[in-house]
Amino acid sequence: MGSKNKLKRFKENEGFKNVYQPSREDLLNDKFNLKGNWNRLAFKNSNPIVVELGCGKGEYSVGLAKMFSEKNFIGIDIKGDRIWKGAKISLSEKINNVLFVRSQIELIENIFSMDEISEIWITFPDPQIKYKRNKHRLVNTDFLNRYKNILIKNGIINLKTDSKFLHGYLIGLIQGLGHEIIYSNHDIYNRSGAPIEVTTIQTYYESLYLSEGKPITYLKFRYNS
Question: Are β-strands 151-161 and 217-222 bridged in parallel, bridged antiparallel, or unpaired?
Fold first, then answer.
């Protein structure tokens, strides 16, 4: 994508009512007024909030919002030109239960308060295979603890990935931490039983992986307090 198109999308994001772009400084200084107030100020209802981390173009956030009108969805990504697409579709189709935040995921505890989120989706993150304890891996112990701080009691995390390594790595972490695996599938399109939202919604990257014949894995677990 050319720089002119990116700049155009960045500008449009500023006017989208479903996109929030808090500065890093405001987040770190606890000046983001939606923290702890997403239901009351943003969605204006008391429905459960589901967050997608690294939402990219928003395919999953938008798809889930269409399927589950009784829930609220928030897609988070640092790349505004990607968020633009999901936000644009949501506005044009009047999907009112999905919002987007442009931010680094490491600041998630500055975006949400304790017990504010019911569920988290992580879709096709970089597995960070090169380093055994990579601090940027979205399912390392540090990040899992951050998620636990914003999730309600017995909150749920979903991981959908083409990386068998990441799938197995998370299973090992979950078992070591004593959490409950609700569902695990190493090849969702060739083994029955996967939830409908796992096989009917596809991200851009997922379609590429499928065209290459890569199996897609899915893991769902619950934090045990």
Answer: antiparallel
8 domain-assigned: no
Is 6 a domain residue?
A: no
Residue linked to tokens 């039983």:
193
**CATH number of the domain where residue 57 is located:** 3.40.50.150
Is the Cβ–Cβ distance between 101 and 114 less than 8 Å?
no
126 is catalytic: yes
Domain count, the chain: 1
Cα separation, 111 vs 38, in Å, equals 10
Work out whether strand 117-123 and strand 49-53 pair parallel, antiparallel, or are unpaired. Answer: parallel
Express each pLDDT in 71-93 by its tens digit.
Answer: 999 999 999 999 999 999 999 99
The tens digit of pLDDT for each residue in 142-195 reads 999 999 999 999 999 999 999 999 999 999 999 998 999 999 999 999 988 899
User: Is 107 among the domain residues?
Assistant: yes
Cβ–Cβ < 8 Å for 138, 54: yes
pLDDT score of 84? 94
Question: Is 9 within the bounds of a domain?
Answer: no
How far apart are the C-alpha atoms of 100 and 84, rounded to whole Å? 9
Catalytic: which of 26, 30, 115, 126? 126
Range of the domain at 55: 25-222
